[in-house]
Amino acid sequence: VLAEREGDEARIRYRRGTDATSVYPDVARALRALPFGDLVLDGELVVLDEESRPSFQRLQRRAQQRRTMDIQRATLELPATLYVFDLLAFEGFDVRPLPLAERKRLLQKLLPGAGPVRFLDHIREQGEAFYAEAIRLRLEGLVAKRVDAPYRGGRSPRWLKLRAERTDDFVVVGFTEPQGERTGFGALHL
User: Fold this and answer.
1) Tell me: the pLDDT tens digits for 1-36?
2) CB 38 within 8 A of CB 90
């Protein structure tokens, strides 16, 4: 998501531009509590499971809430955390042209390491060991970025998404039709 703070206003938008602020009032409140007037952050909204691992199923349940009462209950039962990994703008300055290492250095000074909005550190020069640990912890994978690269929205050859491959044999008993940008099939029923 992109998270923005402009004066007393906070906005959370999904990558495609859909506003998600009302679904995550706890994260928006934490954005408004930051001691800065204007900033734009790039990060990942996560809902953790009992073992403190990101749970896509819990995130989906949280994101599907629409009624105010359900959203308020979800903030307690399915608390969200915005892990911020990049800084795009700060107090009127566009920092996207700066190298990633510099944007991360600035970001670490701006954000806390705990709470609903937190700094997501990066690991330098230990990629293979970090990837092995992600697999051991049964995480989805990791993202590798060039430390000297400016910010570019969307996919880029300057960063790689490395999925932790988990395989097994399954019997396919059905599928759904594709929706949105998908082609072929939507999902498999196993």
Assistant:
1) 999 999 999 999 998 899 999 999 999 999 999 998
2) yes
